[in-house]
Structure formats: C-alpha cells, structure tokens
Design a protein that fits this description.
This protein has one domain (27-156). The protein is 49% helix and 0% strand. The chain is built from 8 helices and no strands. Helix 2 (31-44) packs antiparallel against helix 3 (59-72) and helix 3 (59-72) runs parallel beside helix 7 (120-136).
C-alpha cells in the first residue's frame, strides 16, 4: 500500500514512497514506441471522452488504454486488458476522483447544447470499428454499464452494432 491515511478523498503519501511506486518511465520508450504512441493519440484525438470520474463506463477510454498497452507496450494478454477495466472501476469509485458528483455526463446532449460538429452515428461507427479491430487482436472488450439515461435510451433503441460492441454513444469534436 502506498498511502497511509484512510480518509475519504485524502491520502498521505511521502516522498520516500515514490521510489517504490510502480510507474511507466516514458523516458525509456524507444523511438518506435514513441511513434506508436503518437499514432494512437493522433487517431483518437478528436473523440470526446467522459469526465475521468466516469472512466469506468467510457468505451473510448477503453480503446485508448487498450491501444496504448498493445501498440506501444506490446501487452496483448487478455488478463492485463481485463484488469484495466477493473482499475477504471476502482478509480471511478475513489472518493478523491468521484467526489460528490451524483449526475452522469451525457455527451449526446452536450453535442446538441454546444452545437458540436459530427453525428452520433459517425461516432458509433468509428467506435465499433476500433472495438472490432481490438477484438480481432484478441483484446477483450469490457462490459460497460450504461448511465441511467443511456440505459433508458438503449431499451427503446434498435440495436445496430455487432454483439461484441458495447452499447455506448460517444460524441466527436473536430479540431
């Protein structure tokens, strides 16, 4: 354990503990790995993700994590990718990340509210393509629980995506 204080939203972490905290040292990445990372971010930069406190239900964040693990670090073992979803769920439950937020973000509503370009259908197709490419490489897709508003919409919507694709409607902004 790296934090010694157990209070909601608080953790005491000393500088000495930093030496044993496992992290990725990006300075050790090869030029090929850095180019792969650049390609991942270039491919995904225009897709909007949910706020970090909702990362457990963000299909685009799964794609980002999966591509960084596979394309940059060469990690393709299903157990590692499944563990990432567990990590996202744990992070989302952390009081220091979740805070007091009770509502969930609806990116489709935000697209309308802020008159953002693109369509939900285009975003869904792009997400389905990314997910199918990951599935073809043997990288598991997490079961993402929809937010209450999205769950209601999903009940009435016609399913149009393949069965291995999570029912999630992201939005896209063009840079």
């Amino acid at each position: 354990m790296h934090s010694g204080k157990q209070q909601p939203g608080r953790g005491k972490f000393g500088l000495a503990g930093l030496e044993s905290l496992p992290t990725l040292d990006v300075r050790q990445l090869t030029d090929k790995q850095l180019q792969a990372a650049d390609a991942v971010f270039a491919d995904l930069k225009s897709y909007r993700m949910l706020p970090y406190n909702e990362c457990h239900r963000d299909a685009w964040r799964h794609v980002l994590d999966a591509r960084l693990l596979a394309d940059v670090l060469g990690i393709t073992e299903p157990a590692i990718h499944e563990a990432m979803q567990t990590l996202r769920e744990m992070l989302s439950a952390e009081p220091s990340i979740r805070g007091t937020k009770k509502s969930t973000c609806n990116l489709a509503d935000e697209r309308e509210k802020h008159h953002l370009p693109g369509t939900d259908e285009d975003d869904s197709r792009a997400l389905a393509d990314e997910q199918q490419q990951l599935a073809a490489r043997g990288i598991p897709l997490p079961v993402i629980k929809a937010a209450p508003v999205q769950a209601e919409k999903a009940k009435t919507a016609e399913p149009s995506l393949p069965p291995n694709v999570v029912p999630f409607t992201p939005t896209r902004t063009h840079l």
